[in-house]
Amino acid sequence: MILAAIKLSENTKKALIIFFLIFIIIFVLIGYISLAIQSGMKKQGSKADAMLANVVKAEIFDNEKKFRRFGIKKNARVFYVESRIPFLIILGCGLAYLLYCLFTAKWGYNPFNKVDGFGTLFYEFSEWPKEKFFGINLISGWPSIVTKPHFEVPAIFSYILVPVLVVGTVWFLLYVLAYISRSIRIRKIARAIYRKKLVPDEPTNLTNNQ
Amino acid sequence: MLSFLKVFARGIIVTLLLPIIVLVLACYMVYCLVLFVVMFFKAAIGFFKGNNINADLPEDLEARRIVLEKEKTDAQAKDALNMIYQGMAQGMAQAAFNQAQPQPQVRPDVIDYLASENEEKEPEQIPFEGEDR
Question: Which residues of B16-35 are buried (b: 16+ CB within 10 A; e: fewer)?
């Protein structure tokens, strides 16, 4: 009834449909990205299987605690060996930043700033305009553009530093995800091997029918 | 369509849980940075002691030795079994072959003179000269 009472113009209807479609596309994209991350983590987790295969076959550990401790130790070693390059990139960025501050004497320089930093490559908008409507502050229009993306010579250092830092950080983050997935897998393997259960986790069709 | 809706629902759930996910990831990132530094010092100390961080742990070496031994004994057992099976198969084949050969039919009502002729006879004694037979 209420919906029927609302009369919308054609343009508003079109805008609503477009808004709805964008809304769906964004959430579907996020869903697919999460699925991709999950499958990547599963693949990384299977590395833990290869890592611990011999130890499990040889039945070296007699309890879960020892096995998990060994798994954590091994996982940390793998993480250290894998993440050396991204860590060196991040460390290099930090050193470069310190040297830049030292030579320019600009201590506390923010490489992301909008004056002579990486922020000059982005749009800057003013605040949302607001007006009082029956005593309530409501948004009354679109924000205006303050600065457009532009090139600044003093910001060249940040143009190099920030992308390299982002690449290093994302790379390191991927290895952190791999570390987490291997840890989860090790915990699962330890439980599956050392915790004896009388009732299986997943009942078979046979038991269901009975 | 159902899978599409599932992905859409997953997207909404992930978006709602995003602050928690980001927080957990950030915590893990800090933990991993600390872990990296600790491992770096461990590796550096190990390097001067002559240990390599890429080398296998003692448990790994022990496990590999046990697995290799197991594989060897398994292979030996397999070979022995194969030999037994081979012998059995040969015996069975021989038995089958023998069974497949045409056997001479023996009829009790027929007297086989040829067979009786072929039977071994006692050697005749040759008398000495002048001796009566």
Answer: eeeeeeeeeeeebbeebeeb
Say how many residues make up chain B: 133
In angstroms, the Cα distances linking A32 to A7, A26, A38, B7, B53 are: 36, 10, 10, 7, 38
Cβ distance B32 to A55 less than 8 Å, yes or no, reads no
- Please list, in sequence order, all residues whose beta carbon lies within 8 angstroms of the beta carbon of residue A147, skipping any fewer than 6 positions away: A114, A120, A123, A124
Same domain for B51 and B62, yes or no, is: no
Same domain flag for B75 and B87: yes
Tokens of B72: 């060897």
User: Each residue of A36-54: pLDDT tens digit?
Assistant: 999 999 988 888 888 888 8
Checking if the pLDDT of B104 tops 70, the result is no
> Is residue B5 in a domain?
no
Residue B50 and residue B73 in one domain: no
Q: Are residues B49 and B80 in the same domain?
A: no
Going from N- to C-terminal start, the domains of chain A cover: 67-120+155-195
Residue numbers of the domain that contains B48? 14-55
Q: Are residues B33 and B60 in the same domain?
A: no
**CB contacts < 8 A (A, B):** 90
**B69 with B49, same domain?**
no
Under 8 Å between Cβ of A176 and B29 = yes
Do B31 and B51 fall into the same domain?
yes
Within 8 A of A75 by CB-CB distance, chain B residues are none
> Which of B14, B53, B59 is closest, CB to CB, to A34?
B14
Model-level pTM greater than 0.80? no
For A72-99, what is the mean pLDDT?
A: 93
The DSSP string of A82-137 is: HTHHHHHHHHHHHHHHHHHHHHH--TT--TT-TTTSGGGGS-EE-PPPEEEETTEE
Query: Does residue B111 have a pLDDT over 80?
Result: no
How many structural domains compose chain B? 2
Q: Which two tokens stand for residue A57?
A: 């076959």
Residue B129 maps to a domain: no
